[in-house]
## 1
Amino acid sequence: MSDTKKKTDAAGLLTRLVRNQIFIPLAALLLLVIVNLIAGPSFFKISLGTNNAGNMILSGYPITILDFGSELAILAIGMTLVTAASGGQDISVGAAMAIAGSVILRVLCGNAGSHPETMQAPIIVAFLIGCVVAMLFGAFNGILVAYFHIQPMVATLILYTAGRSIAAWINNNELPIISEPEFGYFGGFIPGIPIPTPIFIAAACMIVMALVLKFTTLGLYTQSVGINEKSARLNGLNPTFIKFLSFVILGLCVAVAGFIKVSRLSTINYSVIAKDIEMDAILAVALGGNALSGGKFSMVASILGAYVIQFLTQTLYRFKVSSDALPAYKAVVVIVLVVASAPTVREKLSSMWKSRKAHTKEVG
Amino acid sequence: MKNKKKLSDSNLLLLITIVIFFAMYIGAILFLKGGFLRPQAFLNILNSNAALIILACGMSLVMITGGIDISLGGQMALISMCCAVYLDEMGGNIFVSILIALAIGMAFGGVIGFLVAYLDIQPFIVSLAGMFFARGMTTIVRTAPFNVANEAFTKLKNTRIIVPGLGSVNRKGIYVDAYIEIGVIVALLVVVLMFILLKWTKLGRAFYAVGGNKQSALMLGINVKRTKFLAHLLCGLLAGIGGYVLFMIRGSGSVANGSGFEMDAIASSIIGGTLLTGGVGNIIGTLFGVLSLSTIQNIVSSAGFDEAWWIGITTAGMLCLFLVIQSIVMSRKKSS
């Protein structure tokens, strides 16, 4: 008697775990870890060494993944909200990052040409201006989606088409270079701290978002708008504003990610910077088990999804896949993922599972 | 009253597009004398946009059924790269290369169509993945761009069809014939065939029915899934044709071929009055959409804004304008 109870308990725990949203990214992570362990455990070695500037830094693939996954994790935060509220995705994040980065560099260069000796404005000012501009572009997307009821992906197509052109236009198609080392701190290392700064920035964003979700009704409102807009309105919410707000928040995330990106490079290349990152960001949300048609969301799962994707990228690099060919492999992952999570496929699988179970019972 | 209502959706959008196109073209003739008056200027718009016209027709088909396919530009790059490698390095013949192009296009269309129609996955996500897959595969085939040195192909590529009576006298006083390329003939043929398909065949009407209202289409006895699948398959076929036409225009295999084409095709369809929500659209409108888009790009560049970024910004501006017009028309329709 107690034996069977134990068995059902274990099975219940297992199904609970499988049903939990975070299971999908965790399983993917586990799979990647196993693949990498089989291919050689040196992948997970972390070492302490000195870099060119003479600072003590941590290096190793896990650190790289956390470091380069920062932008993606930050974008995933905003993308999750947009997905949940509007039931669509923003495909202009890469282009908007180029704009934000371009604005930041433009402010830093001031009137001193494109290769200034010193920065013409404090970094914080440039960053804030970049935030405002990115939020304005987010607001533009938001207005099209929320007030004009255009499908999010098509509305953001406008900025996707124009974004990189606008970014080039802001700097007159010059490639500004900031040579001061302080600017590089935000995408690299602060002297004396062995952990890359982007990790701290990403962590700060996550903490802020966690606090916002904990102490405000943003999360609840976003979900209710995503699940049923009409009933949300009948309950006194303003779905238009909430959708709009989600795009503005994504704009802020884009600015932070763009800032890290330009700080990493100390310059910008309009057509290449943050290329295809929109795909990764959407993939992160999907991998986190969030419904791409909106509604309930799990921020933790999305962020975990973002790091899993960075892990996947790093793994592909490890197997000598060139960066140009990367999208092809990721596209396969996306297709497998969406096919596996498609309702029709799930139904079919579960009915197959059930019939098999029934069959075994009969036999037993 | 009834007349007004009839005008309020499809025809109104089509009318807006045609009026805007003629207004822009006449404006360009009046204010920017730079050659817009010559018939060849117009034919050049056709020559350079033949591939886009074909692609936009395919996009319109899919959009009429309520879907979208953003992988078309990537497919074109893959098609032109594969054909280029086949013709240049294997010295293959042209007919096989055309078959390769069509096969690649239809394979993409078939897979995307299957995923969208039978597995109910959002078309945007599927085709986004398709786009990245096609772009990635293109770089796997070859990274560096190269020209095709194949005699038969070069001959085909340089074939020009003289249009009688539209030539003009150039500055030196020599009469120059007006010409179009083979691609234009193909494109116009596609436009006519698609127009007939949408207007007068059972399948074409089914596209509209499925896009307009899935439920009622189902009740009318239309096989919704099969219709959607066929729309994507047809779109893939057109992408194959369009990819080959683009390949004929460029004459090279390059990763950059067809970049941004999906956006231009969507923009053209939208400008031509195809509704994103499905059920409304017209191939003639799409043709005018392509023409308007490229006319405004020509105007912008001949008005002195010739830096590369203006094209992106104008396209986006135009797309934005028409999306907003659509949205207003739709909300008016809903409220009336």
Note: Residues 1-5 of chain B have pLDDT under 50 and may be disordered.
## 2
Amino acid sequence: MSVNAAETPQQTSTPQKSGLISGLPWVAIAVALALLPMIFTSNSMISTLNYLGTMAIFALSYNVLLGQTGLLSLGHGTFFGLGGFIATHAVLHMADAGWNFPLPLVPLIGAAGALVLGFFGGWLASGRGGMPFAMITLGLAELVYAAAALFPSIYGSEEGISMDRMDLGASFGMDYGPTLDIYVIVAVWFLICAALLYFFSKTPLGLLANSVRDNAERVEFIGFSSKRVRMLAYAIAAAIAGVAGSLAALNFEIMTVNELGAATSTLVLLMTYIGGTKHFFGPVLGAIVIGLMKIWLSDISSAWMMYFGLLFIFVVMVQPAGLAGILMSGVTLMRSGTFKMQAPLLALIGLTGLATLVGIIVLTELAYRAGLDAGLGPQMTVLWLPLNATSVLSWGFGFVLVAGGVLTMRPLLDRLDTLRHSLGKGEMA
Amino acid sequence: MTNALEIKDLRKSFGPVEIIRGVNLDLRKGERHALIGPNGAGKSTLFHLISGRITPTSGQILFDGKNIAGHPPAEIVRAGLSRSFQITNIFPQMTVTENLRCAVLWKLGHRYTLLRPTSSLKDVAAECERLLTELGLTHRAHDTADSLTYPEQRALELGLAVASGANTLLLDEPMAGMSHSETDAALQLIMKVTEGKTLLMVEHDMGVIFEMADRISVLVYGEIIATGTPEEIRANPAVQEAYLGASEEDAA
Amino acid sequence: MSAEVITFSLLNGTLYGMLLFLLASGLTLIFSMMGVLNFAHASFFMIGAYFGFEISKYVGFFPALILAPILVGLVGALIERYGLRRVHKFGHLGELLFTIGVAFVIEEAVQMIWGRSPMDYQIPAALDFTAFEIFGTGYPAFRLFMLIMSVAIFAALALLLTRTRVGLVVKASLTHPEMVSMLGHDVPLVFMSVFGVGSALAGIAGVIGGPILITQPSMAMSLGPILFVIVVVGGLGSLSGAFVASLLVGFIQTFAVAIDLSVADVFGLVGVTQPPAALGALVSDIWNVSVSQIGPVIPYLLLVAVLIFRPMGLFGKRA
């Protein structure tokens, strides 16, 4: 289950690997991005894709800090929000002045603004890593959030600041009325940002960021300043978050102070970590999964935030490599050639896990129905199961599933370890 | 100027306790100088002071004639004085090659570059190749540092200090925790990679010290009580008293 | 500002500062002991308030004052034992992430059980009278009670840490965990107890703070960042630093509310009553800013100032 850094994409590309092969995944991504709007044609689906793309860029920018430099920022949402406000004001002012500035380039303005602010914030926050960094970024974010209330002409009051993205006029053959036009902008920016950040991970500065993550003190003894590396990483992450914020502004045509608050900062942390910080595309996976949870699950269950939090705790406690880590260990397993021998046990573990999950869902839904949603009456259907929030039977069913699942899981995992151990020995012999 | 390093009346106190109590020490260019002394004499503290990890209370550390006392470590390394650590201090999740790449970047003038990929820097690749061969780690080049054996990690630790291109090296117990046969190999490696460089080394293995050192300084209770060639140190009554009087184990 | 306003602001500032210190002391104890910044600390404060509210409905306020913190302490100890201890192997980053997750789930759980609107958590009838009068205005007994409670707990904690054998073991475990373990003390148990006691302290703050501050699901998230400002400004891991910073923040926030002054008033003194229209909307924003509006911003400005001029914090040992 442990997928270590040796298997991350940063390290697998050795110099002798030709440019053609390393370019292939990028071509595949570009093709997928082009096909998506043809498969999902409805306006609401395209709007969802826009949101997911924006969040994916945001999460990728966050991983420059968390995964690559080992910095836990609790205030990354600030740059998302500020980027969005800068983009909004840019559109408003340029429209007033009658400029025909191409709308797809507006995120550049948001990024430039966020970059400058990122340097300033980084200068303040980068002295130390670890806990002090986390707290200082939190403090700075709260400062910006609290101060925003003093400037209604910049941040708007309760209802925020709105704009009309069509005011800048048409360019590149699009008038930016349809959601699909925005999808084109988001998709292109996603490719640009992902490529830039992937390139960053390959540069000397990216390498130094990794070394600061691994051992910040030793970095000082090979001639570099950890503080400088942190500050540069912080500013770069801020600039890309500014792109994401600008795209959000173009997509929704409104920015509110909440966008730069703690909720945004927490969201990006959870997305990125759940997706997996040790693989370059892990954060994208996290953004997609959590984004979809946010959009779809919130429709069918008022407990979706609870599931979100529980999933996060699960990843922190059991699978620090995140969903990408699970995926990659699956791939490794398939390639190892011993999959067939492990399959029955793995299936059993999967079933037990599924039963536990169902139990957790049943209990959570019952609890919400008994508490927050008591007004809806005790009768409910969860996963096609008829349940009753006042019935001992329903609660007992959930408890049995969870307790049984947890108790069965332990010996099963032990047996898997033993099996893998003996398989490993067999290979050696 | 024949002295690479001159330490003048260096003092360091932690609260009311003075650990380094007026150390005076010269390091001649190109010599192999060993620093010995009983446990708790302040050898590691002295290394931390010279390398900038901690700031001295008073006194001077002249490196190439310039006072570096209290300067940040990065500045001292750039000036040409680097160190290794007693407890292995490498980049565990990165490969051996990546460890070395980081360490050679500054001297090759690449600084905080983000315009070119590291793999396209020919000079970095060549220098890392040379270091890998010298350290005997070529076959481990693409393994993560935390997967190395202990002697290999010690070699990498030494490699990071050497890779920075410094002409003066401080090695803090480079053979700590090694078996007898490993010590011999490590000693040969140190002699090879530090050829032509000035060396100040803390070591507990007296056999190694008396075999390799040009001069030896003895640090006892935060003071240098003697400096001289191995023969002079062997004959020095104060050293005999400090070691034989204190503990026979250390003198063995 | 009149003497009356100053006196009441001093009283309320001390009160708010002591309440903050009740929280910050637990946070500091846990931090200096385990190296973990407990992000969920303010959440324990919140469940303290909710438990206090719920229990006092059945058995009254004073038994709740005892029972609720014990329950919160138990919750804290369980979270340490079955959660935090297991993520210890992933380092401090893993531990911090875990406590962020716990804070997230607690906030959700509170909404699940008690709903999203504020609770009707009233001051107990036994303490609902005027304690004394100065300048013709009464000072509520409950506030005086809060103040006495906070000071008493502070004194008890100080005595426990400096005068008892338990305190010695705890202080020694802070600096030399291996040695203390070799001497036959159960360090994991000490850690669990410290985490439990720290949480219980937050719980007490919740029970007595709940009726004054509003008991609602957002109370943890609104107080949490202020706590972090306090521990950074005071110097990470320094109890005396946390004490001074708590009072400082307490005074800043109460005095800011009391000062009835805006930028426009200052200009009004020199005869300028309207912002020059030519300078635009931003200037008119600043024109209308009053001191009480700046109140919430000042702690964070203080944080930035401390970071620039004294990065180790007021009482921190080193950067």
Note: Confidence is low (pLDDT under 50) at residues 1-17 of chain A.
